[in-house]
Amino acid sequence: MLLLKCPSNPGTGKPETTAFRIIRGKDALYSDLVRLSALPGAPMTPTITAFERSPDRGRGLARDMRVRWALEEVRQPYDVRLVSFSEMKGAAHRALHPFGQIPTYEEGELALFESGAIVFHLAQRHAGLLPEDGNARARAIAWMFAALNTVEPPIVELGAARLTERDKPWYEERRPMLEDRVRQRLDDLSSRLGDADWLDHAFSAGDLLMVTVLRRLGASGILGEYPRLSAYIARGEARPAYQRAFEAQLAVFTAASAH
Amino acid sequence: MLLLKCPSNPGTGKPETTAFRIIRGKDALYSDLVRLSALPGAPMTPTITAFERSPDRGRGLARDMRVRWALEEVRQPYDVRLVSFSEMKGAAHRALHPFGQIPTYEEGELALFESGAIVFHLAQRHAGLLPEDGNARARAIAWMFAALNTVEPPIVELGAARLTERDKPWYEERRPMLEDRVRQRLDDLSSRLGDADWLDHAFSAGDLLMVTVLRRLGASGILGEYPRLSAYIARGEARPAYQRAFEAQLAVFTAASAH
Questions:
Q1: Residue B140: which domain range?
Q2: Do residue B188 and residue A139 have CB atoms under 8 angstroms apart?
Q3: Chain A positions in Cβ-Cβ contact with residue B135 (cut-off 8 Å)
Q4: Is the CB of residue B35 less than 8 Å away from at least one CB of chain A?
Q5: Residue B105 sits in a domain of what CATH number?
Q6: What is the β-pairing status of strands B79-83 and A104-107?
Q7: pLDDT tens for residues B68-82?
Q8: What pLDDT, on a 0 to 100 scale, did the predictor assign at position B36?
Q9: How far is A159 from A221, CA to CA, in rounded Å?
Q10: End-to-end CA gap in chain A
Q11: CB-based contact (8 Å) between A116 and chain B?
């Protein structure tokens, strides 16, 4: 998002800030500016970033999927700016995301990073992702943090070992330990979920994040041991908003692969 | 917290819910109930849980420290219920915390788990931990998620390897890789912080969580490579609220060690 300030708009005679959307990467900056609308007050289409070519090959495991899903749940249209790996580590992108990752979120003068924070921002702004009742809302937010700070880390650690240490002599000896750390979380999560559809009554942003976190286990085979959690993931994936988000990220990968 | 409902209070002739605080562990439930005050509306002292005997030996690395610090920043008095390792994994505690950990937070009819969620709840309820301006508030919340989901996981992984794999033949070969994952985050964090005191203008719950996350690196020696981050941690530790919280958790460990 680019904001240009005019001291005086010739049409109105008043100072004006105008927002432009950058449709393609920064290289196309000057050719592809699209004027959006005059500020302030006009509704603005947010722009998120995603991998130009996702390493998950379109399986919806990259973290833009969480944000796309939340945007679809609240029916907020959005634009996507695709970034290459080298752009992601460049100064322009790091100004948006200090750790040089995706996704980011730009809406008017607001720029955010961290998928959890972006999902939370959307849930605060729109109805449908967090309960109205204060205590129920606090509990749903606790599940958001639980997904990202308690359940995801051992899952990411297991996945990283598979990616980067598979050829090391210690890999097979360490693997059961890493898997057991994941199982410890899944045992507890499955017990708490029980026969309920969602973690705390109605579907919330806590479920949205938890389902995306659990989906990262797909390649491990561990989910087969947890029928309740597998059914929980399937309920998430069956939501129309999930499906729209999934198709959108898959289309990016399919188009990139065609080149 | 235990809530007892009376269909009719003999004094007022009206239905009443009365809250009792449980002062000691669940074994002392019936001997140590303390009547708090009539609901609703009466201010209620929240109760958090902490380790009866913290494995960090009072260095303030357990996750109750985050919550204590936040409570001190907003000047909210609180009670602490200490739990043993076996109580932590029992059904009574798991009803509060699905993953059998500390801290938990009870306040009237609200029960929360996850240190990040509890700090956020306090920051929503009280002034002083999140900016009033909407965009600045969203950015501070992004730093909360960044601390817990981007910076903490590689730090915990490094610490866990030191604790559980130190005697394994692969430990010394893996250590540089784990340390480099941490350095990757610290490089980016230090660049973003620059010469500022805090991550986004005023001190916020994002800084509170980030400082507690970085403190976990104490034993690794890595912080010595990052003078800006070391000074940032020292600024956090110098806050009077931090110091009150630190003393309170240290007093628990000191008392437990005296037995």
A1: 134-238
A2: no
A3: 109-110
A4: no
A5: 3.40.30.10
A6: unpaired
A7: 999 999 999 999 999
A8: 42
A9: 12
A10: 27
A11: yes
